[in-house]
Design brief:
The protein has 205 residues and is α/β, with parallel strands linked by helices. The chain has seven helices and seven strands; from the N terminus they run H-H-H-E-E-E-H-E-H-E-H-E-H-E. The longest helix is centred in the N-terminal third of the chain and has 17 residues.
Length: 205
């Protein structure tokens, strides 16, 4: 009988590392590690180099907090985007989802999460102050609250509304084509695009 589960200490360390990835359990991690062992050395080196490059070269946009290869992301640096509209989203995946619809031509602001007391996430943990700083500079006529239609998302929208209510800015939210409890990244492009186009004034309840 083997002294430990994975025969090799190096294999065990690789499995433990892969297991730390979201959605990857021990069995999937072992499968991935064994797959890499079967491949040529070049493929493993390419993977390792890609991961290192991701960590070293990818940064957060100083404008909207989207991931980028440069200080300003392609959206913020594009002179053809409408700088008078800012779409507030939860994470970078939501930006990608909205961009794929091809229906939105404004800028973004990535909060980095939503208010969730059960997870210990409060307003101070989100990029709320940077958003307010952007708005204080003027030039923005509309803010779209495009957060997940969950209880946490609704709570975050209400909090942001209170913070922005005194500003002379139109505050809207995506139309209810996105059902309650849905997350933007799992909404199909057609529905999401229509929800943005048919956005409505935010009404705190």
């Amino acid at each position: 009988m083997f002294e430990h589960r994975y025969v090799s200490d190096h294999l065990q360390k690789a499995v433990e590392a892969f297991s730390r990835l979201p959605g990857i359990g021990p069995k999937s991690a072992l499968r991935m590690a064994l797959y890499l062992l079967k491949q040529g050395e070049g493929e493993s080196e390419d993977l390792a180099e890609s991961i290192l490059t991701l960590r070293r070269k990818v940064v957060y946009c100083s404008g909207c907090r989207m991931i980028s290869d440069a200080p300003l992301c392609p959206v913020c640096s594009n002179p053809e985007r409408d700088r008078g509209i800012i779409c507030v989203v939860e994470n970078v995946r939501d930006v990608m989802s909205i961009e794929h619809t091809g229906r939105y031509k404004g800028l973004y602001h990535v909060l980095g999460g939503i208010i969730s007391p059960i997870d210990g996430i409060g307003p101070a943990d989100l990029a709320v102050e940077p958003l307010l700083e952007r708005l204080s500079k003027g030039g923005v006529r509309e803010v779209i609250l495009a957060l997940s239609t969950t209880m946490e998302g609704e709570t975050t929208c209400f909090y942001l509304y209170k913070k922005m209510a005194s500003l002379a800015i139109k505050i809207t939210t995506i139309a209810r084509g996105v059902g309650f409890g849905d997350q933007l990244e799992y909404t199909d492009e057609l529905t999401l695009g229509r929800s943005i186009e048919n956005r409505q004034p935010f009404k705190p309840e």
